[in-house]
C-alpha cells in the first residue's frame, strides 16, 4: 500500500470533496478542513490500519517495464519514463540525427521530472501543515502535473472556465476549485455555476452585481490589496481592494444577499521578502474583523501565491508564525465553540511546484559573426592579440559569477560590457517557451548539452554548466594543441536568439559559452517549468516544444510514489 507521508488520510463523502480520494493532510489540517467544510462523515483512520474497503492495493510497476518504452498511466496522453534528467536528455539525443534533416527531427524539447513535483509537495506539507495548497493552474496546466497534484490531494486555483474544465476532466470535484479571478466576464460567472464551482474571489461592486444575477449561491472571498513591492510580478497593480474599501464592499454584498466567507490576498508572484507575508496576514486579520462588523463570520483565509523554491523555508517560517499569531487555534479553530465553523487556510502556489521540474533542450540551428557594424570589425582587428589572457580571464570570471550567484557580473554594466563575438540561433525563443523573459521577468542561463556533437552535460554543475575541464579530445591532426584560439573550451562572449524573424526574439543578450559550439549542438536551460509552455504561441508557424516525462531515477525520492500515484 502506498504511504504518501506520515499523516492522516480520510475518505470524503461523495457530496463533498472528490469521493474516494485520499487527501494528504496533517492532523491539524485534517481537523481544520473537515470541521470547516462540515464533513461529518470524515474520520481519521485507526493506528492499526489505514486501509478501507474502498481502497485497493496499487500495482507496483517493475523497473523493466519502464526504461525503454516507458509506461502509460490509465487514460495517459504520453509515456512516462524512468531515469534522471541527464539520462533522459541522453536518450532523446540518441534518437536524433541532426544531419539527416528529418522534418522536425531536431525540435527543442522539455524533460519533466515529476518526482520533483512530488518532493515539493512533501516539503510544503511539512513546512505549512495548516495550509492546503490549491495549485495555480495558470502557471503550468500540464495534464500529468495536474493529475499528480490531484492524487496528492491538492485543490486548484483556476482563473478561467477553460482551466476549470481541464481540472474537472481529471475527475476532480468542483469543491476542490477556487475561481481566483476577481474580474470575470458575466458569461464566465454563469458557466462557473453550470460547472458547479461555488467559490470565487471579488474586489469590486460590479463583480458582486454579476454574481448576484448569474451565480447567487456562490460563496465569495474578498481579495484585499497588499504590499507587493518586493515581488517580481506585482499583481496589486491590477487586483485587490484597499482595506478602506472593504466595508463598502461587504455592505453591498449584504444588500444583495450574497454569502462572503473569507479573505484572500496575493503578495505578488516570485516574492523575495518573507516579511510581505507577515504584513499581508495582519491586513487579512483586519479584514476578518471588518467582516464580523458587517455581520459575517469568515471561515476561509486564502494566503495566495508568491512562493519560490529558493526562499520557501524562510517564507514558510514567517507565514506559519504569522498565521498562528493572528489566527490562533484557540480563537479560530475547532476548540472555539462560539464559532459556527473553524477557519480553513489555503494557498495558491504555482511556480513553487513546477519551476525546477522542467528543463528545456534547444538545438543551435545557425550562428553568425556577432559584430554589428564595419566600425566594430575595424576596432576588433586593432585589438586582436593585445589582451588575450586578460579577456579569457574576464570571461571565466563572468561565468563563475553566474555559476555562483545566478546573476551576471559587472560585465552587464553598460560601460564595461563585452560585446558578443558570435550570435547563436536556437529553435525556441520568446514567442514560445521563453515568453517568460517578457511576461514573467525571468532570467535564463544556457548550459552546454553537447559540444561538437559530444554529450558533455552534467546536471550537478551550477549554471552555466561549463566545467573547467571537459572530456573533449582534440583530433591529433588538427594542430589545435599549439593554437589557443582553436581551443573549443575557450569561453567567448556571445548572444542567443530564437528562431523567428522578429528582432525582439533575443533569449540572452550576453552569455559566455565555449567557442567550439557548432550548428547542430545542443543547449539546455534549467528551471523552465513556470509560465513557459502555458503561453507559448505558434508565431511564424513554429509549434511549441513537446514534453518528455520522467519519474526520475530509481534513487530519487518520490520516483516510486509518483509511478504508483499516476497508475491509478
TrEMBL record:
CDD domains: PLPDE_III_ODC. GO terms for molecular function: ornithine decarboxylase activity. The keyword Acetylation does not apply. It catalyses: L-ornithine + H(+) = putrescine + CO2. PROSITE patterns: ODR_DC_2_1. Residues 115-354 form the Orn/DAP/Arg decarboxylase 2 N-terminal domain. The modification N6-(pyridoxal phosphate)lysine is found at residue 138. GO terms for biological process: putrescine biosynthetic process from arginine, via ornithine. Residues 369-420 are annotated as: Disordered. Keywords: Lyase, Pyridoxal phosphate. InterPro entries: Ala_racemase/Decarboxylase_C, De-COase2_N, De-COase2_pyr-phos_BS, Orn/DAP/Arg_de-COase, Orn_de-COase, PLP-binding_barrel. Signal peptide: none annotated. Residues 408-420 have a biased composition (Basic and acidic residues). The keyword Metal-binding does not apply. The active site is at 501 (proton donor). Its EC number is 4.1.1.17. Its cofactor is pyridoxal 5'-phosphate. One of its GO terms (cellular component) is cytoplasm. Residues 375-389 have a biased composition (Acidic residues). Pathway: Amine and polyamine biosynthesis; putrescine biosynthesis via L-ornithine pathway; putrescine from L-ornithine: step 1/1. Homodimer. Only the dimer is catalytically active, as the active sites are constructed of residues from both monomers. Belongs to the Orn/Lys/Arg decarboxylase class-II family. This is ornithine decarboxylase. It comes from Tilletia caries.
Amino acid at each position: 500500500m502506498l504511504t504518501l507521508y506520515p499523516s492522516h488520510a480520510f475518505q470524503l463523502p461523495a457530496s463533498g470533496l472528490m469521493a474516494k480520494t485520499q487527501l494528504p493532510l496533517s492532523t491539524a489540517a485534517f481537523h481544520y478542513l473537515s470541521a470547516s467544510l462540515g464533513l461529518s462523515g470524515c474520520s481519521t483512520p485507526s493506528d492499526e490500519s489505514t486501509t478501507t474497503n474502498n481502497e485497493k492495493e496499487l500495482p507496483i510497476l517493475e523497473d523493466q517495464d519502464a526504461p525503454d518504452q516507458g509506461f502509460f498511466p490509465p487514460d495517459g496522453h504520453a509515456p512516462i519514463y524512468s531515469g534522471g534528467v541527464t539520462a533522459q536528455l541522453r536518450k532523446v539525443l540518441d534518437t536524433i540525427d541532426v544531419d539527416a534533416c528529418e522534418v522536425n527531427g531536431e525540435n527543442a524539447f522539455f524533460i519533466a521530472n515529476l518526482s520533483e513535483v512530488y518532493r515539493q509537495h512533501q516539503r510544503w506539507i511539512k513546512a505549512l501543515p495548516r495550509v492546503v495548497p490549491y495549485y495555480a493552474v495558470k502557471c503550468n496546466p500540464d495534464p500529468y502535473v495536474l493529475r499528480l497534484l490531484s492524487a496528492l490531494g491538492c485543490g486548484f486555483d483556476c482563473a478561467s472556465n477553460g482551466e476549470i474544465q481541464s481540472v474537472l476532466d481529471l475527475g476532480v470535484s468542483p469543491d476542490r476549485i477556487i475561481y481566483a479571478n476577481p474580474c470575470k466576464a458575466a458569461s464566465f460567472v454563469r458557466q462557473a455555476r453550470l460547472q458547479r464551482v461555488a467559490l470565487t474571489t471579488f474586489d469590486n461592486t460590479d463583480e458582486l452585481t454579476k454574481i448576484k444575477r448569474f451565480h447567487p449561491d456562490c460563496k465569495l472571498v474578498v481579495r484585499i490589496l497588499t504590499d507587493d513591492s518586493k515581488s517580481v510580478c506585482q499583481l496589486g497593480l491590477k487586483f485587490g481592494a484597499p482595506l478602506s474599501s472593504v466595508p463598502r464592499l461587504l455592505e453591498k454584498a449584504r444588500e444583495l444577499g450574497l454569502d462572503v466567507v473569507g479573505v484572500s490576498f496575493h503578495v505578488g508572484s516570485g516574492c523575495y521578502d518573507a516579511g510581505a507575508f507577515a504584513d499581508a496576514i495582519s491586513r487579512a486579520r483586519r479584514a476578518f474583523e471588518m467582516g464580523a462588523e458587517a455581520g459575517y463570520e469568515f471561515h476561509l483565509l486564502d494566503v495566495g501565491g508568491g512562493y519560490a523554491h529558493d526562499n520557501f523555508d524562510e517564507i514558510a517560517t514567517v507565514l506559519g508564525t504569522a498565521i498562528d499569531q493572528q489566527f490562533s487555534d484557540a480563537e479560530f479553530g475547532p476548540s472555539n465553540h462560539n464559532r459556527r465553523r473553524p477557519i480553513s487556510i489555503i494557498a495558491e502556489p504555482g511556480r513553487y511546484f513546477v519551476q525546477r521540474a522542467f528543463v528545456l533542450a534547444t538545438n543551435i540551428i545557425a550562428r553568425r559573426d556577432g559584430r554589428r557594424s564595419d566600425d566594430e570589425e575595424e576596432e576588433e582587428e586593432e585589438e586582436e592579440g593585445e589582451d588575450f589572457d586578460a579577456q579569457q580571464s574576464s570571461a571565466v570570471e563572468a561565468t563563475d559569477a553566474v555559476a555562483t550567484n545566478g546573476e551576471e557580473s559587472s560585465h552587464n554594466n553598460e560601460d564595461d560590457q563585452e560585446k558578443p563575438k558570435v550570435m547563436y540561433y536556437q529553435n525556441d525563443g520568446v514567442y514560445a517557451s521563453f515568453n517568460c523573459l517578457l511576461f514573467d521577468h525571468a532570467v535564463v542561463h544556457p548550459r552546454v548539452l553537447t559540444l561538437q556533437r559530444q554529450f558533455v552535460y552534467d546536471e550537478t554543475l551550477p549554471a552555466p554548466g561549463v566545467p573547467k575541464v571537459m572530456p573533449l579530445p582534440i583530433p591529433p591532426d588538427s594542430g589545435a594543441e599549439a593554437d589557443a584560439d582553436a581551443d573549443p573550451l575557450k569561453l567567448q562572449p556571445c548572444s542567443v536568439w530564437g528562431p523567428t524573424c522578429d528582432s525582439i526574439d533575443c533569449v540572452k543578450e550576453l552569455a559566455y559559452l565555449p567557442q567550439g559550439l557548432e550548428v547542430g549542438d545542443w543547449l539546455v536551460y534549467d528551471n523552465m517549468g513556470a509560465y513557459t509552455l502555458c503561453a507559448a504561441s505558434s508565431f511564424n508557424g513554429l509549434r511549441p516544444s513537446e514534453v518528455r516525462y520522467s519519474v526520475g531515477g530509481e534513487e530519487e525520492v518520490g520516483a516510486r510514489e509518483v509511478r504508483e500515484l499516476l497508475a491509478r
